[in-house]
Amino acid sequence: MKITTGGVCKAGTTLVNKTGGWRSFRPVFNYEKCKKCGLCEIVCPDMSVLPKEDGFFKYNYDYCKGCGICANECPADAIEMVLEEK
Fold this sequence. Notes:
By secondary structure, this protein is an alpha+beta fold. The protein has a domain at 31-83: 2-Layer Sandwich (Alpha-Beta Plaits), CATH 3.30.70. The chain has helices at 39-43, 69-73; strands spanning 25-29, 49-51, 57-59, 79-83. A hairpin with a 5-residue loop joins strand 2 and strand 3 (57-59).
């Protein structure tokens, strides 16, 4: 699609446009350290941290951009940012 000056772009949605494909690092939970506080879910700007039935959390890597905010804010140091392997 070519965009010209004054052009209009078709609106998209993150449900269609998966944004996690370009990250360099991805977060990984250490469930032994996790206190189930839910702060990771609260601070995630992409809403890619999802609660599980057992009270822990999981990532939807289709939308996680690897920003590291969850790992930085985790009070239990239960999230590690690891190099993404493609």
